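G.,

No rush on this.
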Amino acid sequence: MINRFLNHFEEFLIASFMAAATLVTFAAVVMRYTTGSGIDWAQELTIYLFIWMAKFGAAYGVRTGIHIGVDFLVNWVRPSIRKAMVIAALSLGVIFTGAISFFGARWVLFIHGTGQVSPDLEIPMWIVYLAIPFGSGLMCYRFMQVLKEFLKTGDLPVHDMGGQETAA
């Protein structure tokens, strides 16, 4: 139940950030060419939206099997070694993203204490930096999910290419 909600929420956030960034950019370009002046804060907001989208998109990539991975060596070795390599890689993913989430939370607390605000939007920078612990925390959770499923079934998530044929 909670995973289904989290899956939909994750997808909603990614799509919303992407749509908002696109709309803000479009509006800024239209304003610049119709009135001669753009929207001063559009570029900053677009950057922040893409940062948030990328952090949550990476977690989505882990969950669906489209996150970057180099599997040449893993696919070349015998199955018993392959299993150990996959477990090690997923475990390192958990450790790394967990550490980034932890230290990102510490960074957010530090930035909160400084009172910094963004230059154009004048929003507290700690809000912008929340993408680090939230996105990395979700990514850590997704690595744990994939590891648990792999230990249980031996399967990794495989991204559906939408019916497209892939090169052999």
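When you get to it, here's the other one too:
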Amino acid sequence: MSEKHLQTGDVLPPYNGKIRLYAMRFCPYAERAVLVLNAKKLEYDLIFINLDHKPEWIFNFSPRGTVPALEYEQGKAIFDSNIVTTYLDEKYPENPLQASDPLRRAQDKIIVENFAAAQSAYYTAAFNPQALEPSSVEKFHKGLEAFQAELEGRGTKFLHGDEPGWVDYTIWPFLERFEALPLLGKSEFAIDKTKYELLANYIEAMKNVPAVKAYYLSAETHAKFTESRNKGDANYNMLDTSAVCCMRPRKKKE
């Protein structure tokens, strides 16, 4: 799989019959869809999009030009991370990722909704630090505390149970990125393992889940991309090695 992000003027690759996901490698919302595809063990193609210089054809699949967008049949697509992930879970019922109980499904969605304040604080800290206020830090930690309380209350390894489910894969992409904040000079957003022991254990467990491990990026990598974006030149292709030419070093003349 190439990590190259296609941009304005680039040609849409030919459709080969697989479901196709349009994403951006560093987008947490797109990662939600990738994790569900991985967890469902579905075959799919992944096309990365440069969101600053979007290829013209992305609007055929996502009217706002946002990702993720899922091309489920040639030329037919749906978009929005929650819509895409619930569609995939319902379309392919093997290995269900949502709770069977309607009340538990509703409670899972409430957890995701309540976690949005922590996500918003992350975006401010990472990409708009001049607008950062003490209330942002407070909202961030309240979100972590509430999440840890849910883990404690459910008493299971993951929120879904012994294995991660839709609720875990929906929230995880942000937890993955939260670890980059101290590297960006935002030590007040550090996840203190003494205060968040249960959450810290959960984070390490999620890193070892196959669906996550196959797509996981380190805190250092997320910090590097964030810095490039904040400088006004987001390095979308920092992971792409497809254009690297491997040449043997020339021997020095004696």
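The radius of gyration is 19 Å. The longest strand covers residues 44-49.

Enjoy the weekend,
O.
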